[in-house]
Design brief:
The chain is α/β, with parallel strands linked by helices. The chain has 11 helices and 7 strands. It is 50% helix and 10% strand. It is globular, with a radius of gyration of 18 Å. This is Fe-S oxidoreductase.
Length: 216
């Protein structure tokens, strides 16, 4: 099967190691990942801003890039949600492109969805001896229904102590048009900055959880 990686703008620009880790994990399970170089933004920023014409242009680029893929996997619930829920809306008045969009929707998965739901993998052999709390993203949990999959994977990590996050169903504050928090603090400072970036209520939630690391 041909599995293609849709890296997304944020992962490609800010966290490229995420894509590298995905490729490494899948290689362990005998899957060689294809990366179409022509892929670009899913169009969500334009769509959310009301620029649907521009969003369609970006979407057509992805339709072309992943035309012959059997599966398309992405590290982002937000971008996957854009494809699965809003591409049909973008092309509702164009039967030809709508059919192509629906085909892409059917084969596009958020990464944990693919690991657990398609490959049937929950134990990655990971070891992480730290106290961790998990914040489910809005689009991943609400649009895609990705809830059990991340927990199934975390439950198999040796040494990991998973503590519940109060108000975990609250938005982190990143909703709407893209917001990027940039800081140059040392590692411990960055953890605190991430808590603050979530909004005051979530900052309190992180403190209550008393976790060393926050996973989103």
């Amino acid at each position: 099967m041909k599995v293609s990686l849709f890296i997304t703008c944020l992962s490609d620009s800010v966290y490229p190691g995420v894509g590298e880790a995905m490729v490494t994990l899948l290689a362990r399970h005998g899957i060689r990942v294809h990366f179409p170089a022509s892929q670009t933004c899913c169009g969500q920023p334009a769509f959310n801003s009301g620029y649907w014409k521009e969003a369609r242009q970006a979407a057509v680029t992805l339709l072309d890039a992943f035309e012959d893929s059997d599966f398309v996997i992405s590290p982002s619930g937000s971008c996957t949600g854009m494809i699965q829920h809003y591409y049909p809306k973008l092309f509702e008045n164009d039967p030809v492109l709508l059919a192509r969009a629906e085909k892409l929707c059917a084969k596009t998965y958020e990464f944990t969805q693919f690991l657990v739901g398609v490959l049937g993998v929950t134990d990655l052999g990971a070891v992480f001896p730290h106290k961790v709390t998990y914040h489910p993203s809005c689009h991943g949990s609400r649009l895609l229904g990705v809830k059990a999959e991340p927990m199934a994977l975390l439950s198999k990590v040796k040494g990991l102590e998973l503590v519940p996050l109060p108000f975990a169903d609250n938005c982190c504050g990143f909703g709407g048009i893209r917001i990027i928090c940039s800081d140059h603090a040392p590692a411990k400072g960055r953890r605190r900055c991430r808590c603050r970036a979530f909004g005051r209520r979530t900052e309190v939630s992180c403190r209550r959880a008393r976790a060393t690391i926050i996973m989103i």
